[in-house]
Write a structure and sequence with these properties.
The complex is a heterodimer of chains A (281) and B (238).
Chain A lengths: L1 E5 L2 E6 L19 H11 L7 E5 L4 E4 L3 E7 L2 E5 L2 E2 L6 E3 L3 E8 L5 E5 L3 E2 L24 E4 L24 E6 L8 H9 L2 E3 L7 E5 L12 E2 L4 E4 L5 E4 L6 E2 L2 E6 L1 H8 L6 E6 L1
Parallel strand pairs in A: 13-21
Antiparallel strand pairs in A: 1-4, 1-12, 2-3, 3-10, 4-9, 5-8, 5-10, 6-7, 6-9, 11-12, 13-20, 14-15, 14-21, 15-18, 16-19, 17-18, 17-20
Chain B lengths: L3 E4 L4 E5 L9 H14 L4 E6 L3 E6 L5 H7 L3 H5 L8 E7 L8 H8 L3 H9 L2 E7 L6 E4 L14 E4 L3 E5 L2 E4 L4 E3 L2 E5 L20 E7 L1 H13 L5 E2 L4
Parallel strand pairs in B: 5-13
Antiparallel strand pairs in B: 1-2, 2-4, 3-4, 5-14, 6-7, 6-13, 8-11, 9-10, 9-12
The chains are: A mainly beta (281), B alpha+beta (238).
């Protein structure tokens, strides 16, 4: 098992999300940066949907009471095992009674720690992803115990030793499609939307990335209708927000854009205070 | 403008009736939903009903453009099957300890607090859809004499089961949450339980009626809910 010595912030167990219950108001959840989480699992030969630990800046401090093979992907976190800095672009063996410490991320936002064989956590409505009111926990806290596979149990699995993770790219040009209310915008508003830089606000979280800008475009509310991760909303007061994995299933703001899958991944990697630009696909 | 179907990202379409909330024949959304789910089980992953729209989410690899091309508007009128829905009796304690804002609703509408309770509990409401929180029902049917603006300062914490009025809507906070509606009572029922199938007590198309209970009954029902012995009452139409 892994015992959490320090939780970091926004640390939670996530998989690829909870599908099939949106009709009942249950958000999808799942890893923010899917590409990075898939990469970490692939290095270990895990299933794509194996649960991983997701964390933000600064990361958690974890105690392993048994050996494990781990992979860390996503944002460029400093990682130390028992105080020694390690390189994180490949599988790493963690020995019994080791402390794995995720420090600060110099680039990017979300980091992923995958364990060979996966992290065991209760599956609720088809997913292990933490979400308030659905799973027992919504965040990991100090003292939290994460059960993991014992090495011998997962021996049939092939670890990609020597294989390196693809480079972690940061691209502030965010690809989008028109959203359901895109045509409600005037030509001037559309131009302004793509011509201006938007800054990621520190209030952003797993539910939404808030974007601030100089542009003063606004639009009316809509009759409450479906929204999904990647939906970009514009409020009557001119706020722009991109809904992320923990977004509600319905909303009442105009859905002006929809992030492409790559656009979504790229947006998850932009640190608060940095700027982006939308580009129509 | 009529019905419109459009792409909603690369793995969904949005079907919008383009009608006002009060104009739409609500059952047409649910009929189309069940028709599509039955006809395209290999294509459709899940759906989300809202006031005047239906979102259709596809399985990996499905192309929304292909679906739009095949989609025939006539299906919408052809699938008007009549389904049976339940009318559930939802016990609510409107006692002051559970109703911090009932005086605001009374004062705003120039009626007494007991009239607020009487008006709120005398109507049948329609569950239009579930959203905002897991299991949270968007209800239509609120008496206009109870319309009350949302609180200017939303609360950071509202207890699960709280019954509120926000503008022209009424609803139930199905789990602890922040919120800006005027709280006029609390139900001891559990509206969302991941162990149940479906996990939401209320589903789109259900009808509900609130029944005023006193604090003693509240405790009794709460105990039964916790023990798992509470049986939801159906309203009998006779």
């Amino acid at each position: 098992m892994i015992e959490v010595h320090h939780p970091g912030i926004y640390s939670s167990v996530q998989d690829l999300g909870r599908y099939g219950s949106r009709r009942y108001g249950v958000p999808l959840s799942g890893v923010m940066d899917r590409t990075s989480a898939l990469n970490a699992n692939a290095l270990l030969g895990n299933e794509e949907a194996a649960a991983v630990l997701e964390f933000a800046n600064p990361g958690p401090k974890l105690f392993f009471n048994k050996p494990a093979i781990i992979a860390i992907a996503g944002a460029a976190f400093q990682v130390r095992i028992n105080g020694e800095p390690i390189s994180t672009d490949q599988p790493v063996l963690v020995e019994t009674n080791s402390i794995v410490e995720l420090g600060r991320a110099s680039e990017g936002v979300w980091g992923y720690l995958a364990v060979m064989g996966g992290i065991f956590s209760e599956s609720v409505l088809g997913s292990k992803s933490f979400y308030y009111g659905i799973t027992k926990f919504s965040r990991i806290t100090k003292g939290h115990i994460l059960e993991i596979a014992t090495l011998s149990e997962s021996s049939s699995q092939e670890v990609n030793w020597g294989k390196k993770l693809p480079e972690f790219n940061i691209n502030p040009v965010i690809e989008v499609w028109p959203g359901p209310e895109y045509e409600h915008l005037s030509e001037y508003q559309k131009l302004a939307l793509f011509d201006n830089e938007l800054t990621v606000s520190p209030q952003s979280n797993r539910m939404a990335t808030l974007l601030s800008s100089e542009l003063s475009i606004t639009t009316s509310e809509i009759t409450t209708s479906a929204v999904q991760p990647g939906t970009v909303q514009l409020t009557p007061s001119g706020k722009i927000m991109a809904l992320m994995r923990d977004a509600q299933t319905t909303g009442g703001y105009s859905r002006i854009l929809q992030l492409s899958d790559d656009g979504f991944t790229n947006l998850t990697r932009i640190q608060p205070g940095e700027s982006i630009r939308f580009r129509l696909k | 403008m009529g019905l419109k179907i459009q792409k909603f990202g690369n793995l969904a379409v949005l079907i919008d009736w383009n009608l006002e909330i009060g104009e739409i024949d609500f059952t047409s959304i649910l009929s189309l939903e069940s028709y599509l789910l039955n006809t395209y089980p290999d294509t459709i992953l899940e759906t989300v009903v809202a006031y005047t729209s239906l979102a259709v989410y596809f399985k990996e690899g499905v192309k929304p453009d292909d679906f739009i091309e095949r989609f025939d508007m006539r299906q919408v009128s052809d699938c008007a099957e009549e389904k049976e829905y339940n009318t559930w009796l939802i016990p609510v304690c409107y006692s002051n300890e559970f109703a911090p804002d009932i005086s605001i609703v009374a004062k705003h509408n120039k009626i007494s607090e007991s009239e607020v309770i009487q008006l709120h509990a005398s109507r049948e409401y329609l569950v239009r859809f579930i959203g905002f929180l897991p299991g949270f029902p968007y209800l239509s049917g609120l008496d206009h004499r109870l319309f009350t603006p949302r609180l200017s300062q939303p609360r950071r914490f509202i207890e699960s089961g709280s019954v509120g009025i926000g503008g022209e809507q009424t609803g139930i906070y199905t789990m602890e949450s922040p919120g800006g509606w005027n709280i006029i009572g609390r139900s001891p029922l559990q509206f969302f339980n991941v162990m149940h199938d479906p996990p939401s007590l209320l589903v789109p198309g259900d009808r509900i009626q609130f029944k005023s209970i006193d604090p003693h009954e509240y405790i009794t029902v709460l105990q039964q809910v916790v023990e798992g012995t509470y049986e939801l009452e159906k309203v009998r139409h006779d």
